[in-house]
Specification:
Layout lengths: L2 H15 L22 E3 L4 H15 L10 E16 L5 E16 L4 E15 L4 H39 L1
Parallel strand pairs: 1-2
Antiparallel strand pairs: 2-3, 3-4
Length: about 170
């Protein structure tokens, strides 16, 4: 490629570099931190699955562990269900599915008003094996995958909301 073509290509790509583009979805180390997310405190969530989600959300919203005074409080309620699939003639199942639904409420701590409500859901399937321990491990793994997926979805939703909120305040 000649020098003039390289220079022209660089000039064409220059506006893209300054537009503020960054990936919203991606691996945690690749995702850009939205500083406003660290200002969200996560309220305790009931049950074991809720505890896992709570810890995962705390890590996702404030991965650096910054000591910031919270401006918002996230309330999450979970509904989890398990469904047996692949029912055989002897009434045993060979496949299972875990569905988890999360209802989200974001409170402004200053006014105690709801400023954001949303829902997120995740589904994961697993094999039901004849060994009870292996079947339980497979189901637990499916629940862990739903927590991971819910964390990513909730972080994305809150990231968009906080970004738009900061844009309104700035301009």
């Amino acid at each position: 490629m000649s020098w003039s073509r390289r220079a022209a290509l660089a000039l064409l790509l220059l506006p893209i570099a300054g537009c503020g583009f960054h990936p919203m979805y991606g691996e945690a180390e690749q995702a850009v931190l939205e500083p406003g997310l660290a200002e969200i405190s996560v309220a305790p969530i009931a049950d074991r699955l809720g505890q896992q989600l709570e810890l995962s959300l705390r890590e996702a919203l404030n991965p650096e562990g910054l000591a910031i005074k919270p401006r918002f409080r996230l309330l999450v309620s979970l509904i989890a269900s398990r469904v047996d699939l692949g029912i055989q003639r002897d009434a045993t199942s060979t496949r299972g599915r875990v569905d988890v639904y999360a209802n989200l409420i974001l409170l402004d701590l200053e006014t105690q008003k709801r400023i954001f409500t949303s829902r997120a859901q995740s589904t994961a399937a697993f094999n039901i094996l004849t060994d009870a321990y292996a079947a339980q491990v497979a189901e637990d793994d499916a629940r862990t995958r739903t927590v991971r997926d819910l964390t990513a979805e909730i972080r994305a939703q809150l990231g968009i909301f906080v970004h738009e909120l900061n844009q309104k305040r700035a301009g």
